[in-house]
Amino acid sequence: MPENHQIAKKNLKVYRRSPAPWKLMGEGIILIYRFKKDWIEENGQLPLHLKGQFRGGLGYVMLVNYAFSPVGPYNELLFIPGKFGKNKKQAITKIYVDKDVSTYNGRANWGIPKETLPIAWEKAVGKDIINISDQDKQVFSCEVKSGGIPFPASTSFLPIDLHQVWNKVDYYTKPSGFGTGRLAKIQNLSVDPAYFPDISSQKPLLVIKISPFRIKFPLAKYAL
Questions:
Q1: CA dist., res. 105 & res. 103, Å (int)
Q2: Where along the sequence do coiled-coil regions lie (predicted)?
C-alpha cells in the first residue's frame, strides 16, 4: 500500500473483477485550482515518490456522483494537485469512494489509490449537499450551488493525463469525457486534514458542475 494511505481500516475482501475499459455516466463538481508548490508539499498528502516532484499546472478537486458504472452507482471525492516529474503527468493522490468494489477495481485497473468511506449526496433545488464520514468523524462536507447558462465541457479543456504508482507498477491512463457544465459556488466547506488536503484556505479559480456527463477510462498502459 502506498505510504500516504494509512486511513483505510478495512481488509479488502474478494470482489467482482471488472476490467477496463470502463464507460461511466453521472454528474460531477470540479473545483479548479493553481496550487503553490510550498502548499502542496506541506498540505498535499503526497506519497514519498512524489515529494519534491511537483511541477505546477492546474489542480482539481472533484466530487462525482456516478449513476452508471460497470460496478453500479457510487460516489467519489478525489484530489489531483497538478503535474509531477519529468513527464509532467498528473496523479490522483487522495481519493475516497463509497463502494469497496470500486476501490478494488480502481486499484487493479489503473493503480488509483482508492479508499472506501461512506459518502452522502443530497440534492435540493439548485444545490448539492455532500458529506463524507468515518464512523462518527466528519471527514469532508460542503454545499454546492449551481445554475446559469449551460455550456459544453470536456476533457479537451480540462485534460486528465494520469501516472499512478501502485505496488511498484506504473500505470498510465488518459480518460476522456464530455458533458454540460454550469458555473457553481462552493459553500460551508469543512475538511479534516487528517483525511484529505485542507483546501478550505485555498480559493478555486473556477467551480463547475457538469451534469450530465459521460467519461471513458481506457485500459492503462503499464511499466513494471
A1: 6
A2: none
- Beta carbons within 10 angstroms of residue 14's beta carbon: 6
For cell 480518460, the residue is: 175
Greater model confidence, 9 or 131? 131
Average pLDDT of 126-132? 96
CB atoms < 10 A from the CB of 154, how many? 16
Q: Which residues contact 31 (CB under 8 A, 6 or more apart)?
A: 60, 61, 62, 186, 199, 204, 206, 207
How far is C-alpha 59 from the chain's CA centre?
A: 11
* Cα separation, 41 vs 204, whole angstroms: 18
Distance CA 163, CA 65 (A): 23
Q: What is the mean pLDDT of the chain?
A: 94
d(CA 106, CA 171): 11
Residue of 32, 22, 14, 10 whose CA lies nearest to 118: 10
Task: Round to the nearest angstrom and report the end-to-end CA distance of the chain.
Answer: 16
Model confidence pTM above 0.90: yes
The predicted-structure confidence for 114-128, as pLDDT tens digits, reads as follows 999 999 999 998 899
Task: Write out pLDDT tens, residues 72-112.
Answer: 999 999 999 999 999 999 999 999 999 999 999 999 999 99
